[in-house]
């Protein structure tokens, strides 16, 4: 991702906006009241002097598109600030992102949620997930009304520059063709294109699968997908946790990356909603991803010593059961030891750079929507730092079940400088000279003097 940086402020700044970020102007032919029916519209983007951004269209030559609402809870009456789905008539690059027709304007009206997706997406790119959405911060003027700070984001869909797999045709019946070209979602919201599997013999409250590609299924396609998900449940919830049969259906490396990323940002909804899987033609296994809608990441209410599947009162998901398989735990541990500590530090630095980029626009957004943003940006970043620190040292302490005892600790005697940061196993600062097991630079060390 190209890091956003604030440049010169344009002179013609719309009322209410900061002028420190590109402004997207949208004019619709009718009010946008539905998340299923598109409305014809036009748009253009003024880069407002930002050197990293290019102008898109102009006042006199606007770009035609269609626009509708999007989201579930975020589209509800809870929020007046709404998210939108954009569909360009022709694919094009927007603000340096990959060429495409389909985009989303995410409102992020839930407090510090401007940073939640960005945290997960940063890790997704660092660890080479097959497709991770890109995004850019923009201010938006809709039908002459400044509606605040948004993130213009690539959407999850099958395509050459998105989820790059064979696109299976609707109503396909050929047995060889229906085995690939799938993009599906483990879902917790009701959808018309959805199958609901029985959960007898599991600890699940529900198991809903929404299919996105193909969109309209033949009986053969429906039966194939149902049988795949039925088989997956049976193999995941086997009592024999030494079994590797589930790996014939679910790709181990992508699952390990997906789990670890969500665990690192404490995204407790990871396997319950907006949990995407895809399967290409010729592939035997389902791949996990892309990452999307990390709306419960970096939260302040879930104890960081708990795993993401350990949430009081929530529907249990398959990740709890999957993590009982030693081979998955070993792969997650290997990834963590390889890059986990450094990745979390790099993620934190990226979030701070992004906060600097949006700070002035965030203040304007607050003036426009004071009911949704109850704390300053500085306070949000302090809270985010706390969540990252607590999660980081919880991860180090348990290392995802890989460090169960003192025998895994590097039992060495080291003298520490007063300037070196030491933490106990709960992530609390320790003074130099204290004895016991401490965490320093991502390692656990036994301090005897």
- The overall pLDDT, averaged over residues, is 88
Q: Strand order, biggest sheet?
A: 1-2-3-4-5-7-6
Structural class: alpha+beta
Order of helices and strands: EEEEEHEEEEEHHEEHHHEEEE
The share of residues in helices is 10-25%
Number of helices: 6
Instruction: Tell me the major beta sheet.
Output: 7 strands, mixed, barrel
Uncertain regions spanning at least 5 consecutive residues: 1-11, 403-419
**What overall geometry do the principal axes of the alpha carbons give?**
globular
Q: Taking Cα atoms only, what radius of gyration do you get, to the nearest Å?
A: 23 Å
Distance between the termini: 45 Å
Write up this protein.
With 449 residues, the chain is of the alpha+beta class. It is built from six helices and 16 strands. Strand 15 (436-440) and strand 16 form a beta hairpin. It is globular, with a radius of gyration of 23 Å. The two termini are 45 Å apart. The relative contact order is 0.11. Mean pLDDT is 88; it is low at 1-11 and 403-419.
Topology:
Blueprint lengths: L22 E6 L10 E8 L16 E7 L14 E9 L7 E7 L9 H11 L8 E8 L2 E10 L27 E6 L6 E3 L11 E6 L5 H18 L15 H13 L10 E5 L7 E2 L29 H5 L3 H43 L8 H22 L23 E2 L5 E2 L5 E5 L2 E5 L2
Parallel strand pairs: 1-6
Antiparallel strand pairs: 1-2, 2-3, 3-4, 4-5, 5-7, 6-7, 8-10, 8-11, 9-10, 11-12, 13-14, 15-16
Helix pairs in contact: 1-5, 3-5, 5-6
Tag the structure with descriptive keywords.
449 residues; 7-stranded mixed beta barrel; single chain; disordered N terminus; 5-stranded antiparallel β-sheet; alpha+beta
